[in-house]
Amino acid sequence: MIHEMKHTLRTRAGAPWLRRRSRRAALAAAVVLASGIAACDPGEILLVEDPDIINPADVQSPAGANAVRLGALARLIAATSGGTAGGDNIFLLGGMFADEWINGDSFIYRWEIDQRTMTSDNSFLSGTNRSLHRARVGAAQAAELMAEYNSTAPGWQAAEMHFVQAYTVNILAEHFCSGLVFSEVVDGQVQLGSPETTAAAFERALAHANAGLAVATGAPAADSARVRHALQVVRGRILLNLNRPADAAAAVAGVPTAFAYQTRHSATTESNYIWLRNIQERRYSVGNNEGGNGLNFATANDPRLPVTASGVRDDQGTPMHRQGLWPARETSVTIVGGVEARLIEAEAQLRAGGAAAALLTLNATRRAFFTAAQLPDLTLATTEAGRVDQLFRERAFWLFGRGHRTGDLRRLIRQYGRSPNTVFPTGTWHKNGSQYGPDVTMPNPSAELNNPNVQQLCIDRNA
Amino acid sequence: MKIVRLLCASALAVLACAFDAGPAAAQAGTVTGRVTDASSGQPVPAAQVRVAGSTLGTLTNESGTYTLRGVPAGTATVRVLTIGYGESSQPVTVSAGGTATANFALRASTIALNPVVVTATGEQRRVEVGNAVSQIQAAEVVERSSVQNVGDLLTSRTPGVMVVGGTQTGAGVRVRVRGTSSLSLSNNPIYVIDGVRVEGSTGSSTVSVGGTTPSRVGDLNPEEIQSIEVVRGPSAATLYGTDAANGVIVITTKRGVAGPPRWTYYTEQTAIEDRNDYPLAYHGWTAASKPNNVTQCTLAQRAAPAPGNCIQDSVTAYSPTRDPQATPFGRGYRQQHGLQVRGGSESMRYFLHGEWEDEDGVTQVPQFERNYLAARGLSLLPEQRSPNHFGRITGRANFNITLPRNSDLAVSAGYTSQDLRLPMSDDAGTAGIAANIYGGPGFKHNINPTTGDSLFGWREFTPRRVYQAVTTQSIERLITSVAGNTRPAEWLTLRGSAGLDFTQRTDNQLCRFSQCVGADTLGYKIDNRANFFVYTLDAASTATRQFGRDVESQTTAGVQYYRNVFNRNGARGNQLPPTAITVGSGAVKFADETTSESRTLGGYIEQRVSLRDRLFLTGAVRSDRNSAFGAQFETVFYPKLSASWVLSDEPFFPGLGFVDQLRLRSAYGASGVQPGTIDALPYFSTTTLLGESGERPGIVFSALGNPDLRPERSTEFEAGIDGTFFNSRLTTEITYYNKLSRDALIERVLPPSAGTGGTVRFENLGEVRNKGWEGLVNAQVVQSDAFGWDMSLNGTTNDNELESLGGEASIVISSTLRNVEGYPLNGWWSRRLTGYEDKDGDNIIEYDTAAARSEVFVSDSVEFLGHSAPRWEAALTNGFDFWQKRFRLSAMVDYKGGHMIYNNTDRIRCASRNNCRGLVDPAAPLDEQARVVAVRQHPSKTVAGFIEPGDFIRFRELSLSFDAPESLAARVLGSRQVTATFAARNLGILWTRYSGVDPEAFGTTGDAPSSFQAFAPPTYFTFRLTLGL
């Protein structure tokens, strides 16, 4: 039939009846097609789904809240001993700003930090600052979701979220200048914060630590103890920053010396960036009397900080020192520990006039991990300044590379009356003959100016 | 939503009404005839023959004949248009059922402008179009010059189009049309092949070799292209819809011509050489240099007071590229063999093409490495010995089928299968070839501290290690379309098309166990597989009406639907056992998956009116909806208006004998660029962590989203004058354009304190203006059988300004790039090196903290230093014909200028590689010294001294071709046609103000690339033989 019709069409094309028929047929087809399109819903045609993303509604469940909690811990690892491609972490940058690390590569923004002449556009600083806030905000989101959707979870899980917030707020305040901003994300909406002084930031961190300790309970007991001790130590650290050494010592009482709250690394999750940047890439070399005031980390031959000298840095021109604390991509990092608790107690003792007691605490700590042959007892320094130096050297070697040194140097200025040029690296910079700058704090990143509540990045650049 | 639906429906309703409203079909007849060259009498194949005021048209066959059926009885005007000839028309009287004859003898035009252009609504006479249209007759260019890719075809051949080519075999190109408009979205034009939208992204790779990346435009084979039209801006691109604001590159592939099969074989044999002078590395020797040779005495140290000073004994200079033993550059080789056939009948025409191509780049194993390997009985694998290689097989089949009842069907399919190998180059960390060349110590025998071997002046790693990392990209790509049209009445055309561009991309990178450098010696394999799907559906109807003798109307309504789907699976295996080369054999494995999709539904209606065939007016509106628009935004409308007035045809126009045609034209239109698929959405994403109880999955907050997101909207006005003079021996075009992009999508940097995963979110904030002039002059200066001289000059100016940032003061992109209101996009910014003075007369520029003694001067704050994109471009091509046009010599030089280039290579050499002349050599010019002191010792650490004027003139192309007389071709080779071409591409820089290796030595394809440790473009010497069998 169809074949026959085609044949007819072909042979009789042009006949008037056919033109009329074809016009009607085309008209009918066009009307049908127009009706079809009119009936279709462009919204449906344009609807696409992206499997790569998770919608906010999808985390509003016990499992979702728990996953966000774990995400916050991942953020903490990235901000401290981990990192992001092309970026570093606060441990590395803070250590290079102080005297723990010296620069080994050609990146100008790393040079700025090492040389104490930082600009607010520094991408390493802004990346690290952002990374710490991600951990902080992530923990706050997790706490909110857990409270609403996973209220039966053990208390230590919520407490750990408070620990993350306390830790990150404190370490931000230890490194960056006064004028810190803490924004929040509530129900998916950003509530932008306003600049706070360094002291106010420490108080904010303290409030988180207190809140965490109030709920650090539940099974398993080992986990609640781990989180409780971590909160105790970070609380002591915050109180020390607030120049309340006695309260700090009280806060850390009972924390075992062997306690360690660790960030963990693996090849498939997050690499240890201290290993990566120092051993693997040679962008950071262990410092050695940097800028005159720096400690002899590289050559002290101290068992607390094994160092190997070999080869040259990434710049191919300067000698390389590799630390041995984190020799592999997978090596865990103790970001909070019992040793820090003892050091806080020793400082409180020293500040209370108990130099001998402080010395006993320091030496007992040495003995907890090393024999006298490996690490002999300290002898009491003869001057007050010497005893302070002794204490801070102990802190520097015990806590090397974990984000304490910049805060300590700032405390030496702020709490012990030292001048900046007696504690920070000073004089001729080690790479190209130019001079160290005057910075004692890191500038808050210029990107924070996109917050309308922020008119100036730093209230105060002093320690 | 309803509006789009209504428009879709109304488009077809208009069509339906047109059916019913049309006059009763008149009695029809047939017009037939032959089109020939007036001077030679030879047939003119593939000429367009149209009946004016209707949609009727056809093409002539190989013998120049044509047949038009269904022509309404009465008097009609038949018009013939084809490239290389002047337009011709004649009236013809058609009787019902009868056959009228109209033969045409066309007068050849000396300037080969195509009188027909392709628009979004179909083909149109050039004279009717209100905007400037750039055309490249690709088939001719390819046959007579050294063209390796589509980028070569576009480079400098048309005003308003800037092309930055790659510098290695297989590297991608960056194409910008009328400047840079978007702050944060792609500035790439869109590409349309035979009516089908195709993938044209740059940076198309997921494995890094340090900067150089392929672009998908590179997949297209120039040999299959008949012509390219560049739709330069929104004034012309409106009907292409959202995404067309950056221009449209419209590619038409070759088609068959009715007649017997015409076979054509061609081959190209090409030598490739890197003839660039790479900078010497310097070393200042001092007594302390020994024994490790690392210590040197720089100028600053020479001049410093004791005890920090040193005594410089001597200075050495060396570059591996200038040492035959150490250079990685050899002679690359490219060969290409292709076979085409075209022919057919009145009812079916065909074009078939197949080609094999192979190119081995200039990067090779240096002699000292060959010696090293031979002495130890070692060898590299074949793919490691040839680290930059490109192989491709392409095939195409195009069919044009004439169906009963005035219907046509075009079926096209092009397939590409290619493999690319790229070496670690540019800034591939410490392992890049270029990084190790630029960073050398300044003498030949530096010692590898690990092995004790000489590094032959390479910085740290030498090619035998670098080449062990094998990076490949495989492409399987099918571009296919089916397009049909039917003319149910002489005044009505319905057309529809569907097309698919499918690309399968496989990116691999392999370091075998104990090969490569650093941690990579443990071995790893990356295998990332991606699929790109671009679907096009297009339907339209065109109704043509003649009102009296003087007014012709054409109404077109249509709908279009685009769907882009991208999905990728990635896998990586680390720590491979010996001999293993698969992901699965890695001790540590990673996997990832990405999917994205975008859909656009648009409709348009266009009305054209022709008055006395002199004044042509066009008005149109397009409406789009897109899946990426925000939740608060539904439909966008883009209007268009244009006018073209052939002033010289008006009765009042004075009879100037030398004026053939003078035309005024103007156009206004709007278009847009859409945001990314999920840019409007707030969302979380996944992560993993190693916790107390092992590895666990987690979720992190990633993006805030922006429900108010809408597309960038660009509006453009252009006006111009086109002239043809002296019997078509001189044609001119001049165009002014002014484009304003509103609602510019800016990646607004989020305050870090917000704690979001993403650092930015898109907001519609800015306004960017691009304006300027474009000019084109084609002249046949001398024309005779013995000698001919033609000349083509095109030029462009572009004034780019960020007029508004929506209240933001500026956006800092990097330490040297900013977007600031009142300044161009991606401007160079830094504290300016304002001057220097050798105050103590020791010929050494020094910095001193005491201003009175310091010899370099730097501004107190960051300043604008210059544009990153050229503001002025021009290209001059001269062609000379000899011996009845049997020989043709052609040369092109081009100029780019008004911009600055960040010589980041010299910056790193001076700042940290410690080997630039200004740092070490007392004979170095003081300005070279000053910029070194500024970046190293001045507290500003300013790099401003390395941001240099980028103006240059390049000898881009030279070719000599020979067309053998037919008798000779037949006698010697038994061929119908023999054409031999000797051509060279990139013969060097004739003049430049830039001190780096080459002002186009960019490894990356970003909008403001710095020249950072990148190779410079090589030179191609090509011999091509074309045989018409």
Which terms would index this structure?
heterodimer; A: 463 residues; mainly alpha; two-stranded antiparallel sheet; two-stranded antiparallel ribbon; 17 helices; 8 strands; 7% strand; disordered N terminus; B: 1029 residues; mainly beta; 22-stranded antiparallel barrel; five-stranded mixed beta sheet; 49% strand; globular
Describe this structure in words.
The complex is a heterodimer of chains A (463) and B (1029). By secondary structure, chain A is mainly alpha-helical. Chain A is built from 17 helices and eight strands. Chain A has helices at residues 2-11, 16-39, 42-45, 62-80, 90-97, 108-114, 123-149, 155-175, 198-215, 221-241, 245-252, 273-280, 338-351, 355-369, 384-398, 405-414, 420-423, and strands spanning 101-103, 184-186, 189-191, 260-263, 284-286, 307-312, 319-323, 333-337. Chain A has a two-stranded antiparallel sheet. Chain A has a two-stranded antiparallel sheet with strand order 2-3. A two-stranded antiparallel ribbon of chain A has the order 4-8. In chain A, a hairpin with a 2-residue loop joins β2 (184-186) and β3. The longest helix of chain A has 27 residues, at 123-149. Chain A starts with a helix and ends in a 40-residue tail after the last helix. Residues 1-19 of chain A have low confidence and may be disordered. By secondary structure, chain B is mostly beta strands. In chain B, the strands form ten sheets. Chain B has a 22-stranded antiparallel beta barrel. Chain B is globular. Classes of the chains: A mainly alpha (463), B mainly beta (1029).
Query: Compute the gyration radius of chain B: what is it?
Result: 31 Å
Low-confidence stretches of chain A: 1-19
What is the 3D shape of chain A? Answer: globular
Q: What value does the Rg of chain A take, in angstroms? A: 30 Å
List the helices and strands and how they pair.
The complex is a heterodimer of chains A (463) and B (1029).
Chain A: H1 2-11, H2 16-39, H3 42-45, H4 62-80, H5 90-97, E1 101-103, H6 108-114, H7 123-149, H8 155-175, E2 184-186, E3 189-191, H9 198-215, H10 221-241, H11 245-252, E4 260-263, H12 273-280, E5 284-286, E6 307-312, E7 319-323, E8 333-337, H13 338-351, H14 355-369, H15 384-398, H16 405-414, H17 420-423
Antiparallel strand pairs in A: 1-5, 2-3, 4-8, 6-7
Helix pairs in contact in A: 4-7, 4-8, 7-8, 8-9, 8-10, 9-10, 10-11, 10-13, 11-13, 13-14, 13-15
Chain B: H1 2-21, E1 28-37, E2 48-51, E3 57-59, E4 65-72, E5 74-81, E6 88-94, E7 99-101, E8 104-106, E9 116-119, E10 122-125, E11 134-136, H2 138-144, H3 150-154, E12 161-164, E13 174-177, E14 190-193, E15 196-198, E16 225-231, H4 234-237, E17 248-253, E18 259-273, E19 281-285, H5 299-303, E20 314-318, E21 332-344, E22 348-360, H6 367-375, H7 382-385, E23 389-403, E24 407-422, H8 433-438, H9 463-466, E25 470-489, E26 492-511, E27 524-547, E28 551-574, E29 588-611, E30 615-626, E31 636-646, E32 659-673, E33 683-691, E34 694-703, E35 712-725, E36 730-749, E37 760-783, E38 787-797, E39 799-804, E40 810-812, E41 817-820, E42 827-836, E43 856-866, E44 872-882, E45 887-897, E46 900-902, H10 904-911, H11 917-920, H12 926-936, E47 947-949, E48 952-963, H13 966-972, E49 977-992, E50 1019-1028
Parallel strand pairs in B: 1-7, 1-8, 14-17
Antiparallel strand pairs in B: 1-4, 2-3, 2-5, 5-6, 9-10, 11-16, 12-13, 14-15, 16-17, 18-21, 18-50, 19-20, 21-22, 22-23, 23-24, 24-25, 25-26, 26-27, 27-28, 28-29, 29-30, 30-31, 31-32, 32-35, 33-34, 35-36, 36-37, 37-38, 37-39, 38-44, 40-41, 41-42, 42-43, 44-45, 45-48, 46-47, 48-49, 49-50
